[in-house]
Design goal:
Blueprint lengths: L2 E8 L2 E9 L6 E8 L2 E8 L3 H9 L6 E7 L2 E5 L7 E8 L5 H4 L12 H12 L8 H12 L3 H13 L36 H14 L6 H10 L1 H11 L3 H7 L6 H11 L4 H18 L6 H12 L3 H20 L6 E2 L12 E4 L13 E5 L2 E6 L2 H14 L9 H10 L13 H21 L1
Parallel strand pairs: 3-7, 8-9
Antiparallel strand pairs: 1-2, 3-4, 5-6, 5-7, 9-10, 10-11
Length: about 450
């Protein structure tokens, strides 16, 4: 068979070994399928998905609709558009009943929007729905309250938005605070009351004075930031100051070295080095899981071929694998602002680079990382920029934006190896992708022994 292979070896380890052929077999999908109250996992070829699902539930292929379940919401789709890993629901198309033909609409029990479910639940608790017996009301209420966690979170978030409490401008997913605010680092450290000693005030003044010097010693900066860490952390966690306010109080924090040091202080010393090592560790596995028809994979292949050195090839593979995470789960990269992307990231952390996406595969660009539109630091390469991006969520206690939530969760679990986003907040297909990547790495390592 004709084909073209690309092999990249570094220190005796295959970084990436992917072979493209025109006669490659159709790739299997791994689908979690919901129909009514039943669910199952289907591992099948794309062309066989509908027939298998319909055979299992005795349905007609021409009479069903497919919806992707994404963070509690339903989005209509078709088989061709499904990602390799997906959570879907199939429903029968509404049919015209005798009552409808006579001019009357027949009432059906269907999947209702989460706002409707929340409203029904509220009315049931207040006995505001007529025509139901007490037992029927209790049964329906129990059903609503036993919904899967990811749906309940959606319902709860909508009901909380009806009575917002104005927040002190700390950015989460929207500009209002709720009665119960959750961010990734809420349970990260045990908080005590901030110190009010004169020595702490002196350290803060010393930080501001030292920041004005033209020549600065990194060791002195690290020492000052270490001395002020506890009070800075408590202030951010409890008082939720704006990033600009943190910059005014701790100007020495806003550089790449101290961003890395701060993340190490929050988690443990050496965490940042582990993060960068994990990017390399999982790079080729992520690319092996990619659909061969993905345009980004073609770009990565071309960039690796065009790299002049082993180090450049390795860098291109690692950058490509980071970008590919969003493609695996069908999200936009709302955290990456380049010359050929046009979007407003708002106040959430993001990376900015003076390059097009097909130019960042070579280590020749620096990147700026912003949080609440304040420049946090400059990174020497894309991997370090991703590290600084993730660090900014933890340093300033900011929730991941909805638009890139799943991508950032995967980075948290794989690269940062942190458990600050609870399993109940992660969709099934995202958990499945994370576990598959980790399992494939373990299998590969076991074969080396």
């Amino acid at each position: 068979m004709g084909g073209e292979g690309l092999h990249l070896h570094c220190s005796g380890t295959i970084i990436w070994d992917r072979i493209h052929t025109s006669m490659e077999k159709e790739k299997d999908l791994s689908i979690k399928l919901n129909y009514g109250n039943d669910s199952c996992i289907l591992n099948t070829k794309r062309s066989h998905l509908l027939s298998k699902a319909c055979s299992k539930y005795n349905l007609n292929e021409e009479n069903i609709e497919i919806y992707v379940i994404d963070k509690g919401s339903l989005r209509k789709t078709d088989v061709k558009s499904l990602a390799d890993f997906a959570h879907i629901r199939i429903v029968e198309k509404p049919s015209i009943s005798t009552n409808q033909m006579n001019g009357h609409r027949q009432t059906e029990l269907r999947d209702t929007p989460h706002s409707t479910a929340a409203a029904i639940s509220s009315k049931l608790k207040q006995n505001r729905i007529t025509g139901l017996t007490t037992k029927e009301s209790e049964l329906l209420l129990n059903h609503l309250e036993s919904l899967p966690p990811f749906l309940k979170r959606k319902f709860d978030s909508e009901s909380r938005l009806t009575e917002p409490i104005m927040k002190n401008r700390k950015i989460q997913a929207n500009p209002v605070d709720q009665k119960e605010v959750y961010t990734q680092t809420d349970a990260l450290i045990e908080l005590s009351n901030p110190s009010t000693s004169t020595s702490v005030a002196n350290v803060q003044q010393e930080i501001k004075r030292y920041a004005k010097k033209e020549k600065k010693d990194p060791a002195i900066i690290a020492d000052l930031m270490e001395k002020s860490f506890q009070d800075r952390r408590i202030d951010i966690m409890k008082n939720k100051p704006m990033v600009q306010g943190v910059r005014e109080s701790y100007p020495l924090l806003f550089n790449i070295a101290e961003v890395r040091n701060e993340l190490d202080r929050i988690l443990y010393i050496g965490k940042c080095e582990e993060f960068l090592a994990n990017v390399e560790k999982y790079a080729d596995i992520i690319l092996h899981m990619t659909n061969d028809k993905d345009p980004l994979l073609k770009t990565i292949t071309e960039k690796v071929k065009g790299a002049a050195t082993i180090a450049q090839k390795k860098y291109a593979v690692e950058v490509g694998s980071i970008l590919m995470l969003s493609n695996l789960i069908g999200e936009t990269r709302s955290f990456l602002k380049l010359r050929d992307t046009s979007f407003d990231p708002g106040d959430h952390p993001y990376i900015e680079g003076d390059a097009k996406i097909n130019e960042i595969f070579f280590d020749q660009y620096t990147f700026k990382v912003y949080t609440e539109r304040v420049l946090l630091c400059e990174a020497s390469d894309f991997k370090e920029a991703i590290l600084a991006l993730m660090a900014s969520f933890f340093i300033f206690n900011i929730s991941y934006p909805d638009s890139s939530f799943n991508t950032l969760v995967i980075m948290e679990k794989l690269y940062l190896e942190a458990c600050d986003t609870e399993d109940t907040d992660i969709d099934d297909n995202v958990r499945q992708i994370i576990k598959q990547i980790q399992l494939k790495f373990k299998v590969r390592e076991s074969k080396k022994k």
